[in-house]
Amino acid sequence: MRLRLWLELAGFAVLAVVVAAVPRFVSDFRARELAIVGMYFIALLGLSILTGHSGQISLGHGAFMAIGGYTTAVLSVNGVYGHQIRDLWTIPIAGVIAGVAGLLVGLPALRLSGLYLALITFGIAVSFPQLPKKFDHFLGGTTGKILALPRPPFGLSTTTNNWMYYLTWGIALVLLLAAWSLVRGKTGRALKAIRDSEVAAASSGVSLAKYKTLAFGISAFYAGVAGSLYAIANAYVNPDVFPIILSVYLVVGLAVGGLDSLITLIAGAGLIYFLQNHADTVARWLNHLPALNLDPKQPGIPSLVFGAVLIVVMLLLPGGAGGLLRRLFGSLTGRR
Amino acid sequence: MLAAFTWTEFAQQLAAGIREGAIYAGLALAIVIIYRSTRVINFAQGEMATFTTFIAWSLMNHGLSFWTAFPIVLAVAFAGGVAIERIVIHPVANASVVTIVIVTLGLALLLNGLTSVIWGGESRQFKGPFSTRTIDVGGVPISVQDIGIVVVSIGLVALLALFFRYTKLGLALRAAAVNPESSRLVGIRVGWMLALGWGIAAVLGAVAGMMIAPVVFLDPNMMQTILLYAFAAAVLGGLDSPVGAVVGGILLGVTITMLGRYVGFIGSTLKLPAALVLIFVLLLVRPGGLFGRVAERRV
Lengths: 336, 299
Known about the structure:
The complex is a heterodimer of chains A (336) and B (299). Chain A is mainly α. In chain A, 73% of the residues lie in helices and 1% in strands. Helix content of chain B is 70%, strand content 3%.
């Protein structure tokens, strides 16, 4: 147990060093790409707490990201009583508002086990894009809202993209530590007990109401923070910025990173970004296979590859990247 | 904002609602059949339907008439459904709910991508078998297409009910769903029954797809919102009740059409969220849906 703790801490330290050093070695554009990977990573951390650790599936986390993004847009463009809020300070507010929305969904979710929850959250994902269209004076309709370009605070002399990178990954590391200490402690044990058997957990004195709702709230908070950062980096929100399919992609990222893993979710986050933005590269790779000739510009490539990856991972490697690591290091720590 | 209320228009809206509802009912029934036999919610149901509808489009593009293409497409859909169960679903049959949901999501993505890659992402016109001209039904103009859709969908459901009720295979299917262990003991090949269930569900989806495609345009995401309404209909009726799925589908179709027409605030944009809220409230009041039962849980 002790060895495992040290391994995890060492892993975190290595990650922190790598994160700090990377911008020195990559181009400004890569820094922007990596920043967006960091945002997906934050959202996946939240999803892991909910789905991986407490066993409640959500197919609607794209909508919670959208709530965070729209909160930031409204606060920094419309402001409160005409008093605009600096984008940086809208991030925690966006997280809290998304978190409260998560609690509201989580409350009835108590009575909706498993599949019903999947259906309801899927419904939230599909119907959320209608809201900005309906309340277009406030939320900008289909055209969307334009935010001010992000700029480094306190007169720091760094590029916008580097600033977004450090901001995102700084927040990601803090939230990773928070998630890690959460799942290691009493709350984490309660959540896992609920995941493995609700009835047994309740009989052992774990309050289902408290922990299931809490897990929903926390994970929506993470998604809200991620969405807020995404809105800031994008400097623009509209319903297409947070498409319906985003919720599904998040689940793919979670499965690839490992449902109940934390650090390895970076792999899942990277995959989400890569497949969405570099699908043409993937198509060119696939064309090396015999008897295959895909048009790299085809819009269907990301979904096709996402789907195939998802099925293969779930059939062959249900633990994802995290499970693979645990299997590799299992012999080292003498535990499986 | 609202035009004056007339009974003729109300009747027209009612007919449109029933037509919508018949489509939801077909797809909801497909969901329920799979859920009853395998305890899986098939998130790929919509994409399976879209994929088969595109096959129909290709066949008709090669000069076949709708009614010649129809049985071919149903056969392909059936084989596809069986194959999917055998290859993808069977290996994870005993895994957790989360795993199975993720696998069917993967299937949905895969089929959606495949559809775009094969046929391209743009919308196309799908010429249906029924004309869109209206006929006079008791003083109310209703399109032939709407009547045809309802007749075909409900006819198929009735046919299926007869199959489940009066054939040996139907009985075996029901037995495998209710009690797999005992069914195995009396010689039913439970594994193949589950695959058969997927095949039937794929056929229902194909019919729903081919019926709705002339109304909306045929494109790879055509079923996305329809699937959500079908889920809502299935939940409304109670996930494991076939009768509930059909009643839920029609009820939902009519309710949503009426809300969209006569409640100004909801209009056409808030139909989907309205359906969601409806289901949400229903589940809080009756967690088992209208026709379902709430299962007791064992440790």
